[in-house]
TrEMBL record:
Single annotated GO MF: hydrolase activity
Lineage: Bacteria, Pseudomonadati, Pseudomonadota, Gammaproteobacteria, Lysobacterales
Sorted UniProt keywords: ATP-binding, Helicase, Hydrolase, Nucleotide-binding
Organism annotation: Coralloluteibacterium stylophorae
PANTHER family per record: SNF2/RAD54 HELICASE FAMILY
Region (Disordered): 1-39, 341-380
The Helicase ATP-binding domain, residue ranges: 684-844
Name of the protein in its database record: DEAD/DEAH box helicase
Length: 1138
């Protein structure tokens, strides 16, 4: 595909219609009156007068939306302005009504899409029973049921545990250990009015709704069914909770009253401020086995789907899930809630017996099958004493506390380990049992030996903590089995630091020592130098080691830094009252601590934070793009840098970054603009440092030109001993081929495309630049991965934004020294696309996909974490170059013209060749008979047919063209339009063929893309209206025939012009382009010409460049008698084969 030195522009964001500002619409803010008969509104809408208020294009879009099921609910109502129709869409709720003059008015929450309104009105043409009935409340509670400032709703609450009916189980054959019981709170409800809170906009202050005269009521009065429901609840048993009186739901009639209100008004749980509950599906009550830590299983009852739901008992059973939030009814056997209490869980050895019972008819067969546990594994290990150390604070003021007593006492909780099982000394259980790694493990305790070990500890100076506290008369929080160290009975027990010699002695004798956080068991020591060591690894990575000297030994700082990050008390940001030289105590090992300057620690942690978080449990491996980070922490934290390999100097070179600009290499046939020279310098910098990158300039800024200049420079530097490989969409193959030949003829270029490409693989080594496409990667994988390339260039890299696609996988397998990605839209939908492209360029830079989601995507997309966004920007910054048109606008011309070259494929290509041979023979016959000067009409007709094949075979009225499906040019146009409109561009599409415009319109309709179409058949009144709508931004795409719209139109709202088929006279194209590029235009205009490569279209373009008079050589419309001004050599060129 051919382009000039500029590339396509990035379209702006699509505008949405604000219905409240559209002509003919009036905005309302409240609903007052009650429902109306749907047939009433249906009759009004069926009259069809409203259709005149909406253009046909909007009606067509509405039909597509309605057919696609975009309307989730539809119902009718009446307000103080007349009848209205309500609809819930995916995005919002909209309402449309008819005034007395049958004109439209609309009401919505926020911006409305006019297409939604069209869909709503069209759907109303169906019979009312197709869309009314169970639509439910459509508008949120603050508009659907508001009176004054208050909103009517139904409040659900729970009462104290409801007494359950008793069931007779005297003859129940199940053993007592298999019986369960569950008490359920009573469901209570109240219809209440709530008002908006003044601060957060929530609902507060619920007041009871009542039918009493003078009580608060809707402006339209109470509907009959609501009044009946309120009356039924008023007669129910009252339940007083604070100032509010609720009603206990004890009968089916009360449940029906509750459901009547819930169907019309919002439902809240506990308080209105919690937000409304949606009605959830009915779920089922069932029994299940709950596993316990010792391998046993407890029989419990609960819900199949919602284990976390709150159960409430009405006449039946109900559930509420406040987190989701939903509520609904519970089915199944409610008697399962009232099985008599259990005495013990089901032990592993009881499971086989229960399984045998379940094979026979009876109650046991109704129970769920327990999880198998297998045989119990019995351990024979000896007990190992364990002392779990903690601090016990002394009371600050107490008459029995003596001067000099420590503030904190050291306390040991004694336990014994039997392999993986632990027994507290205070427990007399003779057997230990745990369910570990899918197996039940059991150990029999050696109680005599445990007592002997305890006595040995008591003889070593330890005392029972409880007895000691009583003897001292101090209220100390100690438990049975805990010990103090009190070598001198006249003094208080030892503080934590006094335990150190004893703990070393006990650890040496085989005891295990564990510490809780409040036991400071380490000694404060001095710190020496801080060190930074770096070691180069394979690829673009290096290992970073941080250390401090402590008592003559090097201590790894990474575990210390990670432990600080896990400490919620560590101040990542300095508080206002922090002292200048504040220190932070850091425990080095079990016996030593150091104090480190907080400012110096922060200088280490802040730039390394993302790396420390992403590589927990590992060393610190960083990408070379983070050279600035390493240099920065070395300076800020004053580290001694050990580097014997010269890596430091290379990292400092990386830190310096690219030079400001680079000159185009010799032999490059284009003048680069300043920002393109900057891009070339950046690409050269990546090559110098061996890095890949993502060139993400806006469309239209010439990414292809910059990369071609870089590849030519690389060849001249001798760094392309093997070819570069370009992978691009099929539609861009021609562009790469043409621009490489045009701008860098010194690059020997090979295209791997088409059915005959198999032989071309043997020619790769004799070329500098190889071009292939994403669709061909999976087919040619074996041939590509066996070769090595100097550079792998991925154009339109958003094509691999799905990392699991075949093309994305093959791209990662192709051996290349460096990788470059080119894309104007590196991020379209979510950050996962960004990860996929960077992972293809520099694998591992952003971690695995799962790590990236945890560290960046989820915090940024779901929580708006600005700090994580900045960290991500810092990580990818050195490898990303993005310039927007606004940034370089002063350097851009007012009009940028580009050629998109398109390859014909398959049947369309075969049809072109067939027609070319036939028409060439016909022309030669005419010329030989009448001479070239008298054969103009025959020549024009022959060329017309070939041009029609290029546009779309359906334009050719020949039998041979009737069965050819598909058009490469139409596909390319639709791809381009999707991209432009997706980013908000306003586009003009010109074609000489009105029939082609009709085919384009059909394709756009099929995609649901709104557009206008102007041809010679368009009445003058509609023509002016279309121009006004386009200029106002209502429709961003305008299809125009070259003859009808080439002159006389002012379309300065357009910033993009597409010439679908080339016209013989370039002046006619220029006039059409000037519809947008004229006085009043305040935006750069981008002009695209779609040309089929190798065809008559390309030949005409080439001849126009070479021969200035060719524009007048062929007669416009074929109606003039002017002689053709070209010779038979030109004619032969026009009919050359593909």
């Amino acid at each position: 595909m051919r382009r000039s030195a500029g590339r396509e522009p990035t379209p702006r964001r699509r505008r949405r219609a604000d219905l409240r500002r559209a002509p003919g619409y009036a905005h309302r803010s409240r609903v007052r009156n009650g429902p109306m008969t749907p047939d009433d509104l249906h009759r009004r809408l069926a009259e069809g007068h409203w259709r005149g208020d909406l253009p046909e294009s909007l009606l067509q879009e509405g039909r597509l939306l309605a057919a696609a099921g975009a309307i989730h609910a539809l119902t009718a109502a009446r307000d103080d302005h007349g009848p209205r129709l309500l609809a819930r869409f995916e995005r919002a709720v909209h309402a449309v009504g008819l005034d007395d003059a049958a004109g439209l008015r609309a009401r919505d929450r926020g911006e409305a899409d006019v297409r939604d309104v069209a869909a709503l009105l069209l759907a109303s043409a169906l019979p009312p029973d197709a869309w009314s009935g169970e639509a439910g409340p459509l508008l949120p509670p603050d508009e659907e049921a508001a009176t004054g400032e208050r909103t009517l709703g139904l409040l659900l609450r729970m009462q104290d545990t409801a007494p359950l009916a008793r069931y007779g189980y005297d003859d129940d054959p199940l053993p007592p250990r298999l019986r369960v019981r569950r008490d359920v709170p009573r469901l209570c409800v109240a219809a209440v009015w709530a008002r908006p809170a003044r601060r957060d906009g929530g609902l507060v202050d619920p007041q009871p709704a009542s039918l009493r005269p003078g009580a608060l009521a809707p402006a339209e009065g109470w509907p009959d069914e609501v009044a009946a429901a309120l009356e039924a609840l008023a007669a129910a048993t009252p339940v007083h909770q604070g100032a509010l009186t609720l009603r206990a739901v004890t009968t089916r009639a009360l449940e029906e009253a509750m459901e009547t209100l819930a169907a019309r008004y919002p439902v809240w749980y506990e308080r209105p401020g919690n937000g409304p509950l949606a009605r959830g599906p009915q779920t089922t009550l069932a029994l299940s086995w709950q596993p316990l830590a010792d391998g046993s299983q407890l029989l419990v009852s609960g819900l199949d789907d919602y284990a976390d739901a709150q159960l409430l008992r009405g006449a039946g059973l109900w559930y509420v899930r406040s987190g989701e939030p939903v509520f609904g009814s519970v089915g199944g056997d409610l008697a399962l809630l009232d099985i008599p209490p259990q005495t013990a869980p089901l032990q592993p050895e009881d499971i086989p017996g229960l399984l045998q019972q379940q094979k026979r008819p009876g109650p046991a067969a109704q129970l769920p099958v327990p999880e198998p546990r297998g045989p119990v594994r019995r351990l024979g290990s000896d007990p190992v004493p364990v002392l779990v150390m903690r601090g016990v604070p002394m009371p600050a003021t107490h008459p029995r506390r003596l001067e000099g007593d420590p503030d904190v006492l050291g306390c040991a909780r004694l336990a014994f380990d039997y392999g993986p099982l632990r027994a507290n000394v205070s427990s007399a259980t003779p057997v230990l049992r745990r369910f570990l790694d899918g197996k039940v493990v059991e150990a029999r305790r050696d109680l005599p030996r445990e007592r002997k070990m305890l006595q040995a500890l008591l003889k070593a100076g330890l005392v029972e903590a409880r007895e000691c506290a009583r003897g001292m008369g101090l209220p100390l929080e100690v438990a049975e089995g805990e010990l103090f160290a009190r070598p001198d009975p006249r003094r208080a027990p030892l503080p934590p630091e006094g335990w150190r010699p004893l703990l070393r002695q006990l650890a040496a004798s085989g005891a295990r020592i564990e510490y809780e956080l409040d036991f400071p068991h380490d000694e404060m020591v001095e710190v020496g130098d801080w060190h930074l060591d770096i070691a180069e690894q394979q690829g673009a990575w290096f290992d970073v080691r941080l250390g401090i000297d402590v008592q003559g030994t090097r201590v790894d700082m990474l575990p210390l830094l990670r432990r600080m990050l896990e400490d919620p008390d560590f101040p990542l940001q300095a508080p206002p009252d922090e002292k200048k030289n504040a220190l932070w105590r850091v425990q080095v090992d079990d016996y030593r601590s150091v104090q480190l300057p907080l400012a110096r620690l922060r200088a280490l942690i802040a730039p390394l934070l993302e790396w420390l978080e992403s590589d927990r449990g590992r060393g610190l491996r960083m990408h070379r793009t983070q050279a600035a980070v390493i240099a920065g922490i070395s300076e800020q934290a004053r580290l001694r840098w050990a580097d014997a390999t010269g890596l430091r100097q290379r990292l400092l070179r990386l830190r310096e970054g690219a030079h400001a600009e680079a000159d185009a290499p010799p032999g490059f046939n284009a003048t680069l603009r300043p920002y393109q020279r900057e891009g070339l310098a950046w690409l050269d910098y990546l090559a110098d440092t061996g890095l890949g990158g993502v060139l993400a300039d806006d469309m239209g800024l010439g990414k292809t030109v910059q990369v071609i200049a870089h590849l030519l420079a690389e060849k001249q530097r001798g760094r392309m001993d093997v070819p570069a490989l370009v992978v691009c969409p099929t539609s861009l193959v021609g562009n790469w081929r043409e621009e490489a030949a045009r701008f860098a003829p010194g690059l020997r270029t090979l295209v791997l495309h088409g059915s005959g490409r198999a032989d071309a693989f043997d020619q790769i080594d004799s070329h500098d630049l190889v071009i292939t496409t994403y669709p061909l990667l999976p087919r040619d994988r074996e041939r590509l991965v066996e070769r090595r390339f100097s550079v792998l260039v991925m154009d339109e890299a958003q094509a691999i934004k799905n990392a699991r696609s075949l093309a994305a996988q093959v791209v990662r397998e192709i051996p290349a020294r460096r990788r470059l990605a080119m894309t104007g839209t590196p991020l379209e939908n979510h950050l996962g696309e960004l990860w996929a492209q960077f992972d293809a360029v520099e694998p591992g830079l952003l971690g695995s996909e799962r790590q990236f989601a945890r560290l960046y995507r989820t915090p940024i997309e779901k929580h708006g974490d600005a700090a994580k966004q900045q960290r991500l920007n810092r990580r990818i910054g050195p490898l990303l170059l993005r310039r927007r048109k606004d940034d370089v606008l002063a350097d851009l011309p007012a009009k940028s013209e580009m050629v998109r070259s398109i390859d014909l494929e398959g049947d369309q290509r075969a049809l072109y060749e067939t027609l070319r041979l036939a028409q060439h023979a016909r022309v030669l016959d005419a010329v030989s008979t009448r001479g070239l000067g008298q054969s103009g009409i025959v020549v024009i007709d022959a060329l017309l047919k070939l041009r029609q094949v290029c546009c779309d075979p359906r334009l050719v009225k020949l039998d041979s063209a009737r069965h050819v499906q598909g058009s490469a040019k139409l596909d390319a146009l639709l791809e381009l339009v999707d991209s432009l409109l997706g980013e908000g561009r306003s586009v003009l599409v010109f074609s000489q063929f009105t029939e082609m415009l009709a085919l384009i319109g059909q394709a756009l309709d099929a995609r649901g893309i709104a557009h206008l179409k102007l041809t010679g058949q368009t009445p003058g009144s509609e023509r002016a209206d279309m121009v006004a709508r386009f200029q106002a931004g209502a429709v961003p795409l305008f299809l125009i025939s070259l003859k009808a719209g080439g002159v006389g139109l002012n379309l300065t709202a357009a910033d993009t012009v597409i010439h679908y088929d080339p016209w013989w006279n370039p002046a006619a194209e220029a006039q059409a382009t000037d519809r947008a590029h004229r006085i009043g235009q305040d935006k750069p205009v981008f002009v695209y010409r779609l040309i089929c490569a190798g065809t008559v279209e390309e030949k005409i373009q080439a001849m126009q460049h070479r021969k200035a008079d060719l524009a007048r050589a062929v007669l416009e419309e074929g109606g003039s008698t002017e002689r053709l001004r070209f010779d038979e050599a030109d004619l032969a060129e026009l009919f050359e084969p593909l």
